[in-house]
Request: fold
Amino acid sequence: MAGMNRRAVLLIAGLYFAMPMVCALIFSIGLGTPGQGVSFDAYAGIAGAEGLAASMALTVKLALATIAVVLTVLVPALIAVRLSVPRLRPVVEMVCLLPLVVPGVALGAGISTVLRWGTDRFYGTPFFEGLVALQAPEFPVVIVLAYSLMALPLAYSTLDNGLAALDLRVLVEAARSCGSSWLRTLFFVVLPNLRGALLNASFLTLALVLGEYTVAALLGYQPFAVWIVVISGSQAQMSVAVSIVSLLGTWALLLAVAAAGRARRVKENS
Reply:
């Protein structure tokens, strides 16, 4: 009976997630559209779509920078808290989870307001030049900072669980007793044991950057998610086709990460 209930739940969940994908696929190939036969032109034209390459290049740069910022800030902080000041762990957790209660619209509107106020207030000073550099269209650092803030809850949970699975104090003390410096201990002892957590945190951050629309749109930039919405008005089938391909690519990457983690655990156990 329990097995049947489990299969029923899985079937319902599968239909819940599969039906929107099936409907999107039907629309993207023109199936059922009056006066139009089945056509895969939307998929064939993805590679040459105007603006796609530029938006993807910007998104990749933002994703790599965001992953670097999040890991550089969180990993040393979480290790230091666990080793030196465990009483501060609830404070760090609250700070890292706080972005969950801030809507993307509020964050984008707040950043936009501050940037406008700053450019007016500091016009003609070195601060003005710094604010302009933060908003450079080729690489908007302000978007990286916003995405890093939004990614904190996801990355924190993943890294904290990874650290909880380690006997961190024993690892660090053993390495230090062998004459290893703090940096060497971090890079050659702690981080290799956190490989799975680091990979999962990086993937979740990448997925957030790929799908985030609100903040980038409010600040006037056009990464991948905003580009899809922009072209949906004139090339609806193309935008749906690109969305399906990107979603399938994200799922494939997730499965690859999970498979790599399982293979690593099997190798370690053997």
